[in-house]
Amino acid sequence: MIHTTEIKEAMKMSSKIQGQRETLLSVHDLHVWYELRRFGFSRMGYVKAVDGVSFEMAQGESVAVVGESGCGKSSLMKTILGINIPTRGELIFEGRSLVDLTDEELRNYRFEIGYVQQDPYAALPPFMNVQQILEEPLIISGVKDREKRLERIRRTMTEVKLHPVEDFLHKFPHMLSGGQRRRVVIARAMILEPKMLVADEPVSMLDASVRVEILKLLRALQEKHRLSVIYITHDLSTVKYFSERIFVMYAGSLVEKAETRRLLDIPLHPYTAALLAATSDPDAENSITYKEVPPGEPPSLVNPPKGCRFHPRCARAIAGLCDEKEPVDFEPEPGHFVACWLYKTENST
Question: Cβ distance 233 to 239 under 8 Å?
Answer without folding.
Answer: yes
